[in-house]
């Protein structure tokens, strides 16, 4: 995904916005951005038709407030438009989310205090899908597969955990490990460098956990993936598991560079809505280049130490593997360089775009303005379909078994 915040507000006058109310202004700006730039799989009308279609709903919400109608009323209508489009890439982005994206690109964790776990909700509580080394939960001994049953004496839910972390005060957790009850009190804190790719060596199998593909001039997950592939082969690994389950998005170029650690090269085409603006991105020898439709070519970036690994690879994905991390799995699968195991991915593979804005309420909106195509011109699928489809089994995970990882290990052995 490409999230590049515009440095200034789009000209309201250029878009013909009526200064009737804050709600109307926000509605007009958001519908322009969606209707003008959208190029995804859904059928989205031109922005004037989009406004005509949803204006009655805004009028109904603002009926009693007139020109005092606030941003929140328009936000409800914009959320409705996003839901109706049904494209997982097109969404509202809060300032908090944008700040987190920037922190990920700097090699840091999110800005809000947390205990350092990703969880999946089950009938019996919250199953930990990831405990981040260096953060409070991991340091206290919690691990993947532990089942959190209570938070401060109340049944464990994702909303209750998020609220408790936001308060920043000590959190009392009751949890179990394979049926054995335990308890711990944790104090949330802001994560630092805990979401960078993590390599573990288990005998002759390397395990590489990738959480996202955001980057900056100082930090590159792709370079860390190349480094991990080099270290794994030098250590004598005869196979590698790349775990992309629950992985966030990032930058499409970073996905292509990361895949080159195993493919050596490759590329994709950004198919834009407007004639003459398509771009072809390719990577070779660690160098990322773009060729514009005009024929002009330029080098965008270069890895400091590219590496080409030969060891067999299995990639793990699930329904939450999203956008740019879907692309990493797709590049490896399409090149015949890895087999993919797990659940079909989130469905944001075949599109990309920008975080347009800022909107006048301080938020942004991601718009699927780019269709993804292979170098031969064929379209990307909307999601990665694993070679071996295995649904995640939370009950098995809580009992100490990771059925998806087990299948991957079988393939490598």
From TrEMBL:
<keyword id="KW-0732">Signal</keyword>
<dbReference type="Pfam" id="PF03572">
    <property type="entry name" value="Peptidase_S41"/>
</dbReference>
<dbReference type="Pfam" id="PF17820">
    <property type="entry name" value="PDZ_6"/>
</dbReference>
<protein>
    <submittedName>
        <fullName>Putative CtpA-like serine protease</fullName>
        <ecNumber>3.4.21.-</ecNumber>
    </submittedName>
</protein>
<dbReference type="InterPro" id="IPR036034">
    <property type="entry name" value="PDZ_sf"/>
</dbReference>
<dbReference type="GO" id="GO:0008236">
    <property type="term" value="F:serine-type peptidase activity"/>
</dbReference>
<feature type="signal peptide">
    <location>
        <begin position="1"/>
        <end position="20"/>
    </location>
</feature>
<dbReference type="InterPro" id="IPR001478">
    <property type="entry name" value="PDZ"/>
</dbReference>
<dbReference type="InterPro" id="IPR005151">
    <property type="entry name" value="Tail-specific_protease"/>
</dbReference>
<dbReference type="InterPro" id="IPR041489">
    <property type="entry name" value="PDZ_6"/>
</dbReference>
<dbReference type="InterPro" id="IPR029045">
    <property type="entry name" value="ClpP/crotonase-like_dom_sf"/>
</dbReference>
<dbReference type="GO" id="GO:0004175">
    <property type="term" value="F:endopeptidase activity"/>
</dbReference>
<keyword id="KW-0645">Protease</keyword>
<dbReference type="GO" id="GO:0006508">
    <property type="term" value="P:proteolysis"/>
</dbReference>
<keyword id="KW-0378">Hydrolase</keyword>
<feature type="domain" description="PDZ">
    <location>
        <begin position="98"/>
        <end position="162"/>
    </location>
</feature>
<dbReference type="GO" id="GO:0007165">
    <property type="term" value="P:signal transduction"/>
</dbReference>
<dbReference type="GO" id="GO:0030288">
    <property type="term" value="C:outer membrane-bounded periplasmic space"/>
</dbReference>
């Amino acid at each position: 995904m490409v999230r590049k915040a515009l440095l200034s507000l789009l000209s309201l006058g250029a878009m013909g916005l009526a200064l009737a109310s804050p709600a109307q202004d926000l509605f007009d700006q958001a519908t322009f951005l969606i209707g003008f730039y959208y190029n995804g799989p859904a059928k989205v009308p031109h922005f004037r038709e989009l406004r005509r279609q949803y204006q009655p709903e805004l009028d109904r919400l603002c009926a009693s407030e007139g020109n005092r109608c606030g941003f929140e009323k328009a936000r409800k209508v914009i959320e409705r438009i996003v839901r109706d489009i049904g494209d997982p890439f097109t969404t509202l982005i809060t300032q908090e989310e944008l700040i987190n994206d920037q922190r990920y690109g700097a090699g840091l964790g999110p800005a809000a205090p947390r205990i350092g776990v990703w969880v999946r909700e089950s009938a019996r509580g919250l199953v930990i899908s990831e405990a981040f080394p260096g953060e409070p939960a991991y340091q206290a001994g919690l691990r993947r597969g532990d089942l959190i049953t209570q938070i401060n004496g109340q049944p464990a839910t994702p909303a209750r955990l998020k609220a408790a972390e936001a308060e920043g005060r000590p959190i009392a957790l009751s949890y179990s490990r394979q049926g054995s009850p335990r308890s711990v009190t944790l104090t949330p804190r802001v994560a630092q460098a805990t979401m960078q790719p993590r390599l573990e060596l288990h005998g002759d199998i390397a395990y590489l956990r990738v959480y996202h593909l955001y980057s900056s001039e100082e930090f590159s997950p792709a370079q860390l993936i190349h480094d991990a592939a080099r270290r794994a082969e030098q250590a004598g690994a005869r196979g590698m598991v790349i775990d992309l389950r629950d992985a966030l998005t990032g930058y499409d170029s970073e996905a292509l560079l990361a895949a080159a650690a195993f493919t050596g090269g490759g590329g994709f085409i950004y198919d834009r809505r407007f004639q003459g603006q398509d771009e072809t991105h390719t990577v070779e020898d660690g160098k990322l280049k773009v060729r514009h439709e005009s024929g002009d070519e330029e080098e965008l970036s270069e890895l400091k130490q590219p590496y080409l690994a030969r060891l067999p690879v299995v990639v793990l994905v699930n329904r939450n593997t999203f956008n740019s991390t879907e692309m990493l799995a797709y590049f490896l699968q399409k090149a015949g360089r890895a087999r993919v195991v797990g659940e079909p991915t989130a469905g944001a593979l075949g599109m990309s775009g920008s975080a347009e804005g800022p909107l006048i309420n301080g938020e942004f909106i991601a718009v699927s303005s780019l269709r993804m195509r292979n170098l031969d011109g064929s379209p990307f699928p909307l999601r990665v379909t694993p070679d071996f489809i295995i649904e995640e089994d939370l009950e098995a995970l809580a009992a100490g078994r990771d059925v998806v990882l087990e299948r991957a290990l079988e393939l490598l052995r």
